[in-house]
Design goal:
9 helices, 3 domains, homodimer, five-stranded mixed beta sheet, D-Maltodextrin-Binding Protein, domain 2, 280 residues, 12 strands, DNA-binding, Arc Repressor Mutant, subunit A
DNA sequence: CCCGTCCATACCGCCAGGGTATCGCTCGCG
DNA sequence: CGCGAGCGATACCCTGGCGGTATGGACGGG
């Protein structure tokens, strides 16, 4: 037995993130002295100095940096286990599918229809999320399966490819490029591209949008253009047009799920999704 | 805060594995009543029934099965974090390299020599392990980096390919195939192949060996033959010969390390290993 | 030089977690 | 059919650990 407790690890992580016992204590809603004691006890149990305290400044030792990284992940794993258990224990078992709005390549109705006929099928609950959130929601145990686009970070996930799509640019009717048969990225370099709300990695210019409706509205107003997978054509209204973009790499849509998941309901969904995609 | 404690999770895992509170309690070195109480408290905190108790039999509910799987992994992650922290906290930092004996493709001396010249280099400690153990030792935080062969389970690991090798069969001098320029698997189907000790997945026949020395001795005695990567030629004595095997897929050697590892010492080692392999 | 900041120490009270004794249920066996 | 063994649940006690308050001591800024 290594004897380390989840609570004291969480305490240490708070201190290591704040680099300040007092602030960490109030974040944890406890007083500062018990926090000091708990961290010291953790150091004693590990036999390792985690923090360099100099009565004016708190700094991480190399070992402390390791425990901050590893411990955060371990705590994530713990609460993911809790969430998955809670969701598995609901009286009415469900499968939570996470996807970006309009991120199903038009296949979701077919997949769901086929899935419902499976013997292991359970009701599917669809959870919409922002641009890069799929993977975190799957890893964290908030969702069972996801439909992903592009090249997300797949660590901790298993996946199957469903569909490879060419990309199009969506333009307002009357836009200077709207009549072209095809465009290149060079044609678009002066265009305003919206960015998804709450996404730190995205480029800073362009208006912020929260969902596909806002995006289409911006395009229809002529305030922006957007490069989307070809399947998005199905969602376009009459006041915008789609033009193929020649030199953008095709985007692949995939179904992904947490590594180690072995529920029959999930396996049936993945099988159904790949078969449905393969039948096109 | 989800409020789940590592100890109570370990308690539940023990009960779920034994399906018997009394035996689980003695495995945990506590009395049975506190164990019953702890599991019940865990169920209350999760709001989920984990075990079906029928006064004569204990069975897992579906949610209990989920928590058994996920909780085991979460506890693994926790103790891996502890081990990595302990190893990072040693006064003399070292890099622990795990490999099968004679599993380095002859490159280890070159890699180590080149690595020692790196600015971020630390002393390398080599840990030998049995056939399929590399990945578990890396995931568990017992080692920092490994040299792997074949197609191990790489979940939780990052890796780089170092070397693709053809395979040879090692035979006693005077063996019926020893004079051949090459053989096929069909030629070998009646031969005795040793199996590595402590490896459940291996085929049952053949004598058990613990290391390369025992293996070569068995071959020299004519009691066995073995299919090995070409680089093993360097370790062969004069009383055995090596013959290429035509229809065995080449084996790839790779360097692997735990996902998320970001120590400069490790990064330098991986870079050195790939550069050394690329220079051949 | 004093005051504010911040971590450590000292001490206290309470409850969670572990122990022992015992009950209740069920199955197997004579 | 009745008894005993096995096993989990309950009741009760006791101790150690965790959290709280008060305070000390080191350091830096004004």
């Amino acid at each position: 037995m290594d004897g380390i407790e989840a609570r004291e690890l969480a305490y240490f992580v708070a201190v290591a993130e704040e680099l300040n016992f007092t602030r960490a204590a109030e974040r944890l809603c406890i007083a500062q002295p018990p926090l000091s004691r708990a961290v010291k006890q953790l150091e004693r149990r590990l036999g390792v100095t985690l923090l360099e305290r100099s009565s004016r400044r708190v700094a991480l030792t190399p070992a402390g940096q390791v425990l901050l990284d590893e411990g955060r992940r371990a705590l994530e794993g713990l609460s993911a286990a809790v969430r998955r258990t809670r969701r598995a224990g609901r009286q009415e078992p469900r499968l939570t599918l996470v996807m970006k709005a309009v991120g199903d390549g038009g296949m979701l109705p077919d997949i769901l229809a086929a899935y419902e006929k499976e013997p292991d099928a359970v009701p599917v609950e669809v959870l919409f999320c922002g641009f890069g959130e799929h993977a975190a929601l799957l890893r964290g145990g908030f969702a069972d399966v996801g439909l992903l686009h592009g090249r997300p970070d797949l660590t901790g996930l298993d996946h199957e490819e469903l569909l490879v799509e060419e990309q199009i640019v969506v333009l307002r009717l009357g836009h200077r490029l709207a009549g072209r048969a095809a465009v290149t990225l060079a044609d678009l370099k002066d265009e305003v591209m919206p960015r998804w709300a709450g996404l730190p990695g995205d480029r800073g210019d362009g208006p912020e949008v929260r969902d596909a409706g806002q995006l289409l509205q911006l395009i229809a107003l002529g305030h922006a253009v957007a490069v989307l997978p070809e399947s998005a054509r199905a969602y376009l209204g009459g006041d915008v047009v789609a033009v193929p973009v020649l030199d953008v790499p095709p985007t692949t849509m995939m179904v992904a799920w947490p590594e180690w998941s072995r529920s029959p309901a999930l396996a049936a969904f993945v099988r159904t999704a790949t078969e449905t995609a393969g039948r096109t």
